[in-house]
Design brief:
homodimer, alpha/beta, Metallo-beta-lactamase, Chain A, 8-stranded mixed beta sheet, 10 helices, 19 strands, globular
Chain lengths: 329, 329
């Protein structure tokens, strides 16, 4: 289930250059956990940060203090980051952002960078760069996320990203990453070698090829197989239990949902706008997701197994968001 | 020369409670290096941060990203921090500050905290706390430091702190910590046991005790020995070579002076308002300091010995600011 980010990237390169792998190995779509802790700093867990690898693009999701070091540890080339999504403005979810943006600047970046997050994030960054008399050498495109309505934020060649309204002490949004539908694969070996090239494109788009009388020469159904299913990942942190989330999250392949507390602290979880492991599992079960990842564990707990046990009692396909692990979707 | 922060604190406690140590072991005055790197993040060195232990108080000097974890690694109780000094608003010197202040708040701190730094620092912090809808549960007293004039910033029971104007790309100040003069020690064993208590205080302050005719009963010089010399520490980072610094820094016991580059990059050092190891050593030699500590090494250098060698060619009592080491002053 897990391997390293580098292996995922390497598998991706292979599928790009080796035709034999064309059908079986789609573009990588993988999540690497950089931090799974909560607000109180500890030496065991780092604050929230995740890296989503989508084809050759890196998308960073939340950016707690020290995230740039976690990326360096994972041997991620910082320059390949193109999109950053921040859930909310509690420090353990974004205090690593200004340091990361500064480092990108110092390294001479000129490529545009796209940042999504709550209103106010731009003011913080603008203030920080102003007082240090810094000018970024790259364009930083900031889009404020509406915390109340699911909104399409990004229409990327391979996927769409929409916001997921959460309920926390301050405005907070999750993010839903959905691959676009894959085109059917062409069965070239079944076609005569002299088929005109323009026919191939039409077949791949599902259109039959007909002669001038309208008779089918090559049926798309016969010469293609369906593309791989579209994959999806949803990130939900931080939030109290919101039963209604299951509508938007229906059927996602991988769901990350915060699980700050165990059931013994269910009341406190609700008070401080956080969730328990069982509540995360209830969302996963009711939304019929493929797998559930839990994290954002409170520092009051010394062991993580009880989180897994409580969640699996409701949703067996639950896994811990272990720092440094990559979940291939 | 070096030991751990805990050992320094332990030595301090011993001197407080064991009269036999009263004369030989003064209050601790020790510097712990938390970060000695420069702006580019690496896994080898952390950004600038130092902890000065003065009696039972902790003073933090600069606070690069991740400083709170360095403090936790050193087993420093964060709650004991009372004074924080920030040299300038380049991120590698203060991006760990908002995270640290947030953690202190989360842990329920109510004691006042005193922060010294460039104008603009308060605006950054105010913005960060406003957008997260946070109110600190403790008073944070901010004093903006005049970057152009040496200024007395703090009159602490045991020491004074004054600013040291440096020359960097943006406003930047060093800090000079000077112990107040120690009172003479009383030689109790030489005095008759029936000497009135009020005489002891006068003798310790250097006053002779006279009878009603003005004749000396007990001469201060006979019944006291001079207290230990006052100790001093100066922190200078980041700055280009400023020959005039030696006036203010004359005779300090320990001087930290940045040494971002080796002599092969002297021209570049000047351009980017940094110093070489030899320039740091020249300041130390001309100011007649006791020991020189160098740090803020550029990530372009893979080895630190050349820094030491170049500096020692001018000033033999030079040491590397090794992270985790404590220099007892």
């Amino acid at each position: 289930m897990t391997n390293t980010t580098q292996e995922a990237a390497s598998a991706a390169n292979k599928s790009n250059h080796d035709p034999a792998h064309h059908r079986s190995a789609p573009q990588p779509f993988a999540l690497t956990i950089l931090g799974a802790g909560s607000a109180t700093p500890t030496l065991r867990l780092h604050p929230t940060a995740q890296l989503l690898t989508v084809g050759s693009d890196y998308m960073l999701i939340d950016c707690g203090e020290g995230t740039q070091l976690r990326l360096i540890e994972q041997k991620i080339r910082l320059g390949r980051l193109r999109y950053i999504f921040i859930s909310h403005l509690h420090g353990d979810h974004y205090f690593g952002l200004a340091p990361l943006l500064s480092t990108l600047n110092l390294s001479g970046r000129t490529e545009d960078l796209y940042l999504f997050g709550p209103r106010g994030l731009d003011e913080v960054l603008t203030t920080i760069f102003r007082v240090s008399d810094s000018r970024l050498g790259y364009n930083l495109h900031f889009q404020a996320v509406d915390p109340a309505l699911p909104t399409l934020l990004l229409d990327h060649p391979q996927l769409t990203v929409e916001s997921v309204p959460l309920q926390h002490r301050i405005d907070c949004s999750g993010y839903l990453f959905r691959e676009k539908p894959h085109k059917p694969h062409l069965l070239r070996e079944k076609l005569p070698t002299d088929v005109p090239v323009q026919y191939l494109k039409q077949l791949k788009e599902g259109h039959d090829i007909r002669d001038e009388n309208g008779s089918v020469l090559y049926a798309a159904a016969e010469y293609t197989v369906p593309g791989p299913p579209s994959r999806s990942y949803a990130f939900c942190s931080d939030t109290r239990y919101v039963a209604g989330l299951t509508t938007q999250l229906q059927g996602v392949d991988l769901l990350y949902h915060e699980a700050t507390f165990l059931e013994d602290n269910a009341e406190r979880a609700s008070e401080v706008y956080h969730s328990t492991a069982q509540q995360a599992a209830a969302i996963a079960a009711n939304a019929g997701v493929g797998r559930l990842l839990i994290g954002h564990f409170s520092s009051r707990y010394k062991q993580f197994e009880p989180f897994l046990n409580e969640a699996r009692s409701l949703f067996p396909e639950t896994y811990l968001a272990v720092e440094g692990e990559t979940f291939v979707i």
